[in-house]
Amino acid sequence: MEIKHSAHAGTLESSDLTVTLQPATAGISIALTSSVAKQFGDQIKQVVTVTLQKSGIQAATVKVNDKGALNCTIKARTIVAAYRAADKTDYDWEEINSWIN
Amino acid sequence: MVENKLGRQIPEPYASQYGVYTGEFTHIKHYQRAAAKVQPVKPRQPKLMQSIHDAIVATGLKDGMTISFHHHFREGDYVMNMVMAEIAKMGIKNLSLAPSSISNVHAPLIDYIKSGVVTNITSSGLRDKLGAAISNGIMANPVVIRSHGGRARAIASGDIHIDVAFLGAPSADEYGNINGVNGKATCGSLGYAKIDAKYADKVVAITDTLVPYPNTPIAIPQTDVDYVVQVDAIGDPKGIAKGAARFTKDPKELLIAQYAAQVITASDYFKPGFSFQTGSGGSSLAVTRYLKQAMEKQNVHASFALGGITSAMVSLMRAGLVDNLLDVQDFDHPSAESLAEDPHHYEIDAEMYASPLSKGSVINQLDVAVLSALEVDTKYNVNVITGSDGVIRGASGGHSDTAAACKMSLVIAPLIRGRIPTIVDDVNTVVTPGASVDVVVTEVGIAINPKRQDLMAMFKDLNVPQFTIQELRDKAYAVTGTPAKIHYGDRPVALIEYRDGTLIDVVNHV
Question: In what order do the strands lie in the sheet with B375-377?
Fold first, then answer.
């Protein structure tokens, strides 16, 4: 999957987050703002990175604004942002299911 | 550094100056009670001053002195900001501020700290912007956090000597008789202010309701008051009840409350004449409600309910289920009204409520206390002062006092809040030692402190899921992930006094 244009998913409700993806030439870089950055900042970045990689994205500029979301929410918002940025709508649920946990 | 009994590192010189925590009751020793310096008032000598400015001049307030306020107006307080503005204008510096607590409305204190008007603070708690500013290190000297009982002890033993107390008075006469039940901003009990009135050298009553002599009922008597000042408004009645929760509909909070009520009613303490204290949080109020149902059904009435009083407790007394309310502070208007009307609703001071160095405080007679927590760790230590990010944002309150003295303490809290686990390996800051905590109640079940084998036996057939505290932590971490440790700086910004005056923990800057 390749990021074609900027796209985002999520809200700023508590326990949610917004994930914004923009095209990049190489690598995944994440700018994180989080209400739980001190306790979970590294874990949030890790989850976003792994989720993007599993979705087949190797390069992206990512902006995450987190309001204390759990990992399951972070994964879901990241996947949706990735599909939107890649203009893909054919979710392969079985494939996603094979790695999401 | 000195390691205290809980393994917390207490830096010098504070460890030597205060001593370090060695156990719940190991530091209770006889002492000489402190007393105020008194300037007697002669016949025909007036106490009424024209302005706060004149009153401050009359008290002889000088650089380096200690001043105090009470926090009965909670988020509706105008008095501290009003007096501090005048003090700052007069150019007085280097003051020690010793209020019973500090609320969000007192954020202007940040400016007075920066300008050197205030250089030391002791308080039950610090909130919001001020808590964050102090955690970021705006004060050279660390704040001393004291419990309500601990503050009363510190004042009675002379650890805190108040030079001038500025006491907001819902009503007062020109000769200084004060109560909290009449006036425009009625806060009800003046339990924390009574201590200041008794022990401060100079006492200024600040009122917006000046009534003819004598102002009865008399909560604080004229014999303790030097000056009286009339102002337009001392507080916002809405702010007094701000944060006082209505009955929650949150299913998680209701389940916690239900489990807590089950624990209480299944205990041997639940019998005619028992006593309890519940707080003002959503779950706490719901506990009171569930208790009411059980008390009605089993025809068990309580001899007294204690503490911060809420309308939920008042309704229990009106229903004939509680014989007496012993009231150090009111959290809402109906409670203040009840204090005015019902002789069995009785005003007590902070020393009688919770001081470990009084000749026996009411908490020593208490059966069951329901307390809240920001964090509980696997040693049952409780944090109610710093957030999970290490920033000071809470208050010690009567937590460690009540937990230590009552026969069974319940700490109720959700397993997680958002992504923040409540049950953790190590709390950021210890306020109440695990030795004082008997049962932890969450929405997934309870954990009984293994030191209370009697309770384990008592609750072995209880229809509430039971876990070890480690299992509760694992359940929390399974949802949130394991939180990273907070990185603190090396400068202490708050000393956490245990109720006996020794240091139980220290908060460093972040």
Answer: B382-383, B375-377, B423-424
Residues B191 and B260 both lie in one domain: no
Identify all chain B residues contacting A40, using CB atoms and an 8 Å cutoff.
Answer: 419, 480-481, 483-484
* Residue of chain B whose alpha carbon sits nearest to that of A43: B481
Residue A23 lies inside a defined structural domain of this protein = yes
**Residues of B whose CB is below 8 A from A41:** 484
CB pair distance less than 8 Å for A36 and B420: yes
Contact B419 A43 (CB under 8 A): no
Question: pLDDT tens across B37-49, in order?
Answer: 999 999 999 999 9
CA distance A34 to B411: 29
Q: How many CB atoms lie within 10 A of CB B369?
A: 28
Copy the structure tokens of residue B205. 């009553």
Q: Which residue of B has its CA nearest to A68?
A: B419
- B263 shares a domain with B224: no
In a mutational test of the B interface, the residue from A12, A33, A39 whose CB has the highest number of chain B CBs within 10 Å is A39
pLDDT at A1: 86
Q: Are the beta carbons of B422 and B442 closer than 8 angstroms?
A: yes
Residues of chain A with C-beta less than 8 angstroms from the C-beta of B479 = 70
- In which domain, by residue range, is A24 found? 7-90
| Interface contact B484-A15, CB threshold 8 A | no
**Is residue B282 scored above 90 in pLDDT?**
no
What is the signed CA dihedral for B499, B423, B410, B126, rounded to 10 degrees? 40
Q: Provide the residue range defining the domain that includes B234.
A: 46-240
pLDDT at res. B271: 97
Average pLDDT, integer, range B105-129:
97
User: How many domains is chain A built from?
Assistant: 1
CA-based nearest residue in chain B for residue A47: B481
Confidence of residue B244 (pLDDT cuts 50, 70, 90): low
Residues of A in contact with B414 (CB under 8 A): none
B250 Cα to chain A: minimum distance (Å): 16
Q: Average pLDDT over chain B, rounded to whole?
A: 96
Whether A96 is covered by a domain: the verdict is no
User: Considering only A29-43, B278-292, B394-408, B449-463, which range has the smallest mean pLDDT?
Assistant: B278-292
Using alpha carbons, select from B424, B469, B431 the residue that is nearest to residue A39. Answer: B424
Quick: pLDDT tens for B328-374. Answer: 999 999 999 999 999 999 999 999 999 999 999 999 999 999 999 99
Is B1 among the domain residues? no
Residue located via tokens 């603070």: B121
Contacts with A42 from chain B: Cβ below 8 Å: 484
Confidence band, pLDDT 50/70/90 cuts, at residue B240? confident
| pLDDT of the residue at B245 | 59
**Interchain proximity A40–B484, CB inside 8 Å:** yes
Q: Is the pLDDT of residue B52 over 90?
A: yes
Helix (H), strand (E), coil (C) string for B423-474? EECCCCCCCECHHHCCEEECCCCEEECCCCHHHHHHCCCCCCCEECHHHHHH
